[in-house]
Amino acid sequence: MNTAALLGSYHPENALAWQDGRPITYSRFLSEVAALADRLPESPTVINLAEDRYRFLVGFAAALIRGQTTLLLPSRAPRALAQIARVYGSSYCLADGQETGKGLPVVQIPVGGWSAAPNPKVPHIPLDHPAVVAFTSGSTGSPRPHPKTWGSLVSIARSTGARLGLKASDHATVVATVPHQHMYGLEASIMLPIQHGMAFHVGRPLFPEDVRVALAEVPSPRMLVTTPLHVMACVTARTPLPQVEFILSATAPLSVSSAKQAETLFETSVYEVYGFTEAGSLATRRTVAGETWHVLDGIALHQESDRYLLQAPYLPEPIQFPDLVSLQGPHRFVLHGRGTDLVNIGGHRGSLADLNHKLSAIEGVRDGTFFLPDDTGTSVTRLMAFVVAPGKSVDQILSALREVIDPAFLPRPLHVVSNLPRNATGKLTREALLGLMHELHGKDRHGD
Amino acid sequence: MPDASPLEAEVAKLIVHTLYLKIDPAQIQPEQPLFGEGLGLDSIDALELSLVISQSYGYQIRSDDPETVATFASLRSLCQSIEKNRTK
Questions:
Q1: In CATH, what number does B6-85 get?
Q2: pTM greater than the 0.95 cutoff
Q3: Interface test with chain A among B27, B47, B55, B87, by most A beta carbons within 10 Å
Q4: For residue B22, which residues of chain A lie inside 8 Å, CB to CB?
Q5: Where do the domains of chain B lie?
Q6: Cα angle vertex A225, ends A219, A373, to 5°?
Q7: Which of A58, A84, A354, A390 gives a 20 to 30 Å CA spacing to A124?
Q8: How far is residue A73's CA from residue A135's CA, in Å, rounded to a whole number?
Q9: Which residue of chain B is at minimal alpha-carbon distance from A234?
Q10: Rounded CA separation A166/A179 (Å)
């Protein structure tokens, strides 16, 4: 049976994680994982809700050892867990705090109280084991599952590390502003460190000052795993960050000028990684070097009529790009924007069709549509929505939406209207919606 | 917003302008929650607001500060934190 080690490099006394300025060693990690694995219930699937990055990893690794699959929730909406629980009814939840399992059994990942196992062995996991299932929103209202084998996660982590020149001997530490229950966060803040003998900070800093403090709590060399939003926040605040070897950004494109500012201000190198849920991370670029993306080793691109496809040894079949791209041979490409159905709000990706489906499914809503206006400048542009719902108030519709969609996609504002400007064929054109927006905003413009 | 202090009125304007909210700043009640069910702000907004607050008042907001959850609870608590921590 082909397997790959849980850890790419094992030095028992090296730090794996930094919690409140104190290290947690690799050997303690293996002891904790072995002890938790013995206590996990029998179940094919688990939802790991742990907020602490280290405890999430303990739960994730214990599940791997038991041959279980970790389900990554499709969004932060309260109903997302219930929706997954309906499909994967025999699941249980792992938690490290007050998280509730919405009807599923909850197993706490214990803190402390461990007896160290003598000479713990590094577990090996079968390459074809479905380690995680990530979900995309699909267009029908139900999340579409994308299983990821352990082999694919290891392969992506190793090829990303090779591209960045990461070496176990450097023993660098990752500080990540992104959640670990998300493909990019899992890949860059969990898999990348454990496959390269690195360490990570357990927290998830938000404000520039948090990022500075978290970086200062870990030893050099440091790597910041983040998003364009956080990079720009640190640049704008001119935060005096400790020395950072690399900044790795993903979830949305970073502009060359922002990357240049960050490189100058923080005396660092800014790289971006590009990926999407169906394929995982697949390409990188040094942002200041230009717009061309270079695919990771083993990945090849090709075009079939008007479709752009990528192949990788760990993908069962070629996958189509959801974004608009042009190829420069089989290993390089340029991004030209999102597909027409996709939206990206502050790094959260969604499908307009899916959002419209969820809006229309709300009781009392007769017709409705989300709409993304043009950029308003430096601020993150939000979606707005137009809804036909006689007898319903804006607050009632927003409360119902809040249950089913990610908070980043909540419309600002939501307008209740008597009808939508559909054309003769029932379509809503961008021009018609822009017209409606100007009409409504002209009406209730406040005098400031 | 009859019971709002001058700073509260000023910060309400800052919030509306920074986040392009389509409301009149005077509609923000000082005690109304800014996040979730109240004004409906989220962590992206918190990040954007933290930047303008640091630029306008020299106050660097941190989330591991036990006061931060309370800071963002309402316009009034945000203004109290600004008042306490401002350097300009």
A1: 1.10.1200.10
A2: no
A3: B47
A4: 412-413, 441, 444
A5: 6-85
A6: 150
A7: A84
A8: 7
A9: B51
A10: 22
